[in-house]
Amino acid sequence: MLAVAALVLLTNPASAQGDGAARELLAEIEAYDTQILALDAQLGTLETTLAAAEAARTAKLEEAKSAAGKVSQRASGARALLRSLYRIRRFGMLRLLFGADDPVELRRRASYLTAVLASDEDQTAEFARLAAEKTATAKAAEEANAATRALRDQLTTQRTGLDAERKRRVSLLREIRGQPSLVGRVITETATAREALDSSVRAREGSMPASQAVTSNVDFRSLRGRLPKPVSGQVLHGFGPVVDATTGARTNNPGIDWQAQPGSSFRAVAAGEVTRAGYVRGYGQMVMVQHGNFSTLYAHANGLRVFVGQSVAAGDALGTVGTTGLAEDGEPQLHFEIRYNGTPQDPTEWLAR
User: Fold this and answer.
1) In this structure, what are the phi and psi dihedrals at residue 223, rounded to the nearest 5 degrees?
2) Residue 200 within a domain
3) Closest CA relative to residue 298, chosen from 330, 264, 329, 252
4) Which residues contact 253 (CB under 8 A, 6 or more apart)?
């Protein structure tokens, strides 16, 4: 859940000045989020590479099997060739050649010997080629597969380490919540980030042609009380005032927070245009969709599936639920807001019951 500007600390107000420790912590969490997201992308690429390597390995093994089948099919011809070679070795090549009674028989035997020797050479070369190809392709496939698996294990280990480190940072942040001076700094930092986001939203909405805004407003207003939930899960925090159980600080939640399964998709509640898709301090990975003078915001994502300027329809997957930003307790969740001209609206009045 995001701490926002409407704050009343039930402690000494002067303590809200705090120090720089929390700001460094937020920056470090952002840095770790960025690294983890990068590792996620690398792991995804690696899994694709691994699947391709395994497919190539299977294909090579099939080729080797096919080559072995061809060798088997030629076995009868090879046996006949071996019998001919045995006869040549038994009787001697010169004896077999010059034992002919006339020139015609001599030419026939010479042609026979030439064909036998050429066939022997061809068969030997073909067998050698197929055997070498089988060995080389199988070895290359196994080496590629082993290397890919090793890299995947390495990245998984790194990701596990980063996840553990990020959890330690989140735990530290929870401890800081018990110190009013640092709580004030955290909220100040988050409020600053929120104000910067609000300013950019207001600037965009202010530059929108009136005709477009009116048309979009009518469409979105007609959905009041009928919007689908962006994700399935249990509500962690509703819209409006929230009292921090640790510090007694009161904050105003500008949206709804759902706890959801990690990696589950969250979806657009209405058609619109993506105006923001990326990392925003406090919000983490987030998507904002514009619906005329209305906008919807989805935060704390891990993976994003949309880009700025993309048109989306109701129900389109925007990304996957995650823990980026100031997700409470580091649990997978989705923060969702509905805004009108930049002012947060109570989502429960818009969502279907």
Assistant:
1) -95, 0
2) yes
3) 264
4) 1, 2, 4, 237, 238, 239, 240, 241, 242
Q: Does residue 145 surpass a pLDDT of 80? A: no
Domain span at 316: 180-349
Q: What is the DSSP letter of 229?
A: P
From residue 65, how far is each of 81, 132, 141, 268, 343 by CA, in Å?
A: 24, 13, 14, 50, 68
Nearest 5°: phi and psi at 260?
A: -145, 165
Chain centroid, CA 292 distance in Å? 31
What is the count of structural domains for the chain?
Answer: 2
Q: Are residues 275 and 154 in the same domain?
A: no
Residue 302: CATH number of its domain: 2.70.70.10
**Claim to verify: residue 293 and residue 244 sit in the same structural domain:** yes
Residue-wise pLDDT tens digits, 312-334:
999 999 999 998 888 776 789 99
Q: Predicted confidence band at 38 (pLDDT cuts at 50, 70, 90)?
A: confident
Residues 253 and 318 in one domain: yes
Q: Which residues pair with 222 in a beta bridge?
A: none
- For residues 252, 256, 262, 267, the Cα torsion angle rounded to the nearest 10 degrees is -140
Give the C-alpha separation, 32 to 26, whole Å.
10
Contact in structure between 159 and 41 (CB atoms under 8 Å): no
